[in-house]
Design goal:
The complex is a heterodimer.
Chain A: E1 3-6, E2 10-14, E3 19-21, E4 23-26, E5 33-38, E6 44-50, E7 56-58, E8 64-68, E9 73-78, E10 87-94, E11 104-106, E12 110-115
Chain B: E1 5-7, E2 10-13, E3 19-24, E4 31-38, E5 42-50, E6 53-57, E7 64-68, E8 74-78, E9 87-94, E10 106-107, E11 111-115
Parallel strand pairs in B: 2-11
Antiparallel strand pairs in B: 1-3, 3-8, 4-5, 4-9, 5-6, 7-8, 9-10, 9-11
The chains are: A mainly beta, B mainly beta.
Chain lengths: 116, 116
C-alpha cells in the first residue's frame, strides 16, 4: 500500500531564509508524488508533481522538490521564505497505478510559520 | 480558465438531516473526486466519479453517496447527519482516465459543513 510520512508537523523559519519540508514515501512501484499547499480557510493548491520524469521538480512560487529513490524521500525546498509562504503543506502520493483507483493519499501536513 | 467551483461555501445542518454539496469541475475534466478534511483526521478520500460512474469509494458508510451528471458536475449527499460529519468537504477534478495527466487533481475551495 502507498503511504507518505511528513516528518515535521510544524516548521518555523525567518523571512529570507531557506525552507525545507521533509517527506518520505512508501510505494511498491514507481509512485506519482505531489506537494499541495493550503492557506487558512482555503482549498488545496498544487505546488508541484513528480511523475517519473526528471527527479528535480520545479513548482510554483519558487518551490522545488527532489525525488530520491534510494532514500524514498521527496523533500520540498525553497531558497528564501516569504511571509506569504505561511500555510500548511501536504505531501501526497497517488494510489492510481494504471488508473485503478486514482485516489490521493495525504500526509498529515506540515504547518509552516514564517517570522519577520 | 475557471477552476473547480463548489457550493455552498458554508452549510449548517442539525443531526439527522441531509446535506447536499455541489461541485463543478474544470472545463474538459471528466473525473471528479470528493475528500473529507475533518479536524484531527486529516484528508480522507471519499468518492471518485468518472464519466458518470462511481469508480472508487473510500472507507465511509453508505449514507455518504453521490452522483455525476452528464455535464460532469457532481453532487455529494450525506444522509442522517452526525456531529462527526462536521468537516471541510473538498472536491477535485482531473482529466479522464484515458489521459496522461489523469492522476493530477485540482481542488476547489471546499464546503464547510457544520452539524449541530
Amino acid at each position: 500500500a502507498q503511504s507518505v510520512t511528513q516528518l515535521d508537523s510544524h516548521v518555523s523559519v525567518s523571512e529570507g531564509t531557506p525552507v525545507l519540508l521533509r517527506c518520505n514515501y512508501s510505494s511498491s512501484y514507481s509512485p506519482s508524488l505531489f506537494w499541495y499547499v493550503q492557506h487558512p480557510n482555503k482549498g488545496l493548491q498544487l505546488l508541484l508533481k513528480y511523475t517519473s520524469a526528471a527527479t528535480l521538480v520545479k513548482g510554483i512560487n519558487g518551490f522545488e522538490a527532489e525525488f530520491k529513490k534510494s532514500e524514498t524521500s521527496f523533500h520540498l525546498t525553497k531558497p528564501s521564505a516569504h511571509m506569504s509562504d505561511a500555510a500548511e503543506y501536504f505531501c501526497v502520493v497517488s494510489d492510481g497505478y494504471g488508473g485503478a483507483t486514482n485516489k490521493l493519499i495525504f500526509g498529515t501536513g506540515t504547518l509552516l510559520a514564517v517570522q519577520p | 480558465e475557471a477552476g473547480v467551483t463548489q457550493s455552498p461555501t458554508h452549510l449548517i445542518k442539525t443531526r439527522g438531516q441531509q446535506a447536499t454539496l455541489r461541485c463543478s469541475p474544470i472545463s474538459g475534466h471528466t473525473s471528479v473526486y470528493w475528500y473529507q478534511q475533518a479536524l484531527g483526521l486529516g484528508l480522507q478520500f471519499l468518492l471518485w466519479y468518472d464519466e458518470g460512474e462511481e469508480r472508487n469509494r473510500g472507507n465511509f458508510p453508505p449514507r455518504f453517496s453521490g452522483r455525476q451528471f452528464p455535464n460532469y458536475s457532481s453532487e455529494l449527499n450525506v444522509n442522517a447527519l452526525e456531529l462527526e460529519d462536521s468537516a471541510l468537504y473538498l472536491c477535485a477534478s482531473s482529466p479522464g482516465t484515458r489521459t496522461i495527466d489523469q492522476e493530477t487533481q485540482y481542488f476547489g475551495p471546499g464546503t464547510r459543513l457544520l452539524v449541530l
